[in-house]
């Protein structure tokens, strides 16, 4: 047991002067009044808080610091409590000498005389303004977005729930516009997140400028906004608003020393009650419609309907199917030779991914776009690259050296990590980089000129060759093509098919490639007549069912051994 010293009652008496000193020096504002509320004494902290010195305060009624914000009933209740219970405490607004008001916590205690009557009141006043400010900040953060100062998702869900009930009663239609900035990730990657924020704030301002009475705009995070149209008069009003939202983004955005950047948006629209009567449902459906707008080419709007839902469910199934398929080894790679027209020998091969699912081969165009929308495209790309490296190894054991080209999807190519990913794979599998080529579609190459050139040069430094795929479909500027470090250009099958009627496009592309010393390959050649025509136009190489379909490694190896190769090394 710890020993407790026994002190005498004399020792425990604190001198009165000490109380006075405590009163004067405590941080808490204190006042002593008579029973009528006339101030007798105030302490230093009171003077600091309220602005009145002790001399100025003495003799005045306590309402010297009253704000005038409270009604008579408030004071009646206070006096009632003081008279009957001898104390009162609560929130109150007070006024300083300079006239400013502040929230305070006031505690008043009655001090009784020998007869047991209240003779004095002792009040302490705590300034609550800091706390209130912080409370307001916390509340702001809970309901608003700091960057754009727009209300956030929580606010939206609240407002939407209220608006839905209101509209159910009034029978009016409510419209939700889900707005997403196109390619914003790329902007963040290229200019950095702080410049991205500057652009987001500007975009928010523009969207806000369209707000009509009763409508509201929210930022859901990232580059996603929601526009809530409270009372939609008719369909025309919805389309009009969608077009105004698209139009307001058209002017370039200015940032960073007058630099200009263009931002587009994609919009998805859902209506209440037609497309859902719960907030989450309406938002999800607007979001699905927005993704449809993106798929259809971005910078446009799409309205939700049932077919979107069915399509979305199909996408979800495919996505989880790909994930499981990668795990179960359902993916494989076929190879298709590209042939030197004059000698009919193979110059290189294209790797084409295959998905063997339930005994059937699923076409890549059915799953590549879906894999692109999730990160699964990374896994597929790595899978194909590893397969190609391994096939190069197998070929080497047969003393065969033929380059393999790999299709790179737009999303992959514009991913900042793509060069690192390639470098890592080269280190890990150690193929001769001259035997690797990346095929990038013309559209991908044209998406962001500066960025594209930088990545292309970085890849070239790793020793990898580059080719432009599906040429002729993307309206490239030829001047720009000349700047790109590409070795090969593939003419899209569509032009080869049309060639018999009109060879204008094909002959022009071949002529340009000759001039730029770029190797040219005709895609999808199926007939001898096409081949003869291409040979006449001076085309170097061709690829197509005429020579060989995409096939597994063993068949391709036999093809190479029987038809011969024209090695570049
Ligand atoms: P692509 O890169 O333009 O590939 C050429 C497509 O044409 C291939 O279809 C090929 O099998 C087909 N083809 C080749 N010769 C002929 C012919 O004479 N006639 C006809 N009718 N078709 C021919 P596939 O393998 O179905 O691939 C379709 C698309 O899927 C490819 O178009 C490419 O964009 C994409 N893809 C395929 N594999 C991959 C991959 O590993 N990664 C990525 N990112 N995309 C891939
Ligand atoms: Ca290709
Ligand atoms: Ca192609």
Task: Provide a descriptive summary of the structure in words.
- With 569 residues, the chain is of the alpha/beta class.
- It folds into three domains: 9-133, PAS domain (Beta-Lactamase); 144-304, Alpha-Beta Plaits (2-Layer Sandwich); 322-563, EAL domain (TIM Barrel, Alpha-Beta Barrel), CATH 3.20.20.
- It is 46% helix and 24% strand.
- It has 23 helices and 21 strands.
- Strands 13-14-16-17-18-19-20-21 form an eight-stranded mixed beta barrel, surrounded by five helices. It has a five-stranded antiparallel β-sheet with strand order 2-1-5-4-3, with helices on both faces.
- Mean pLDDT is 91; it is low at 1-9.
- The structure holds ligand C2E and calcium ion (2 copies).
- The site of ligand C2E has 22 residues, from β14, α13, β16 and β18.
Q: What's the name of the CATH homologous superfamily of the largest domain?
A: EAL domain
Helix content percent band: 40-55%
- Compute the average pLDDT: 91
Shape: elongated
The number of domains is 3
The second-level CATH architecture of the largest domain is: Alpha-Beta Barrel
Distance between the termini: 92 Å
Q: Tell me the strand percentage band.
A: 15-25%
Count of separate DSSP helical elements: 23
- CATH class placement of the largest domain: Alpha Beta
Hetero groups: ligand C2E, calcium ion
Rg measurement, Å: 38 Å
Reported for the largest beta sheet, the result is:
8 strands, mixed, barrel
- Helix-strand category: alpha/beta
How many beta strands in the DSSP annotation? 21
Residue windows where pLDDT falls under 50 for at least 5 positions: 1-9
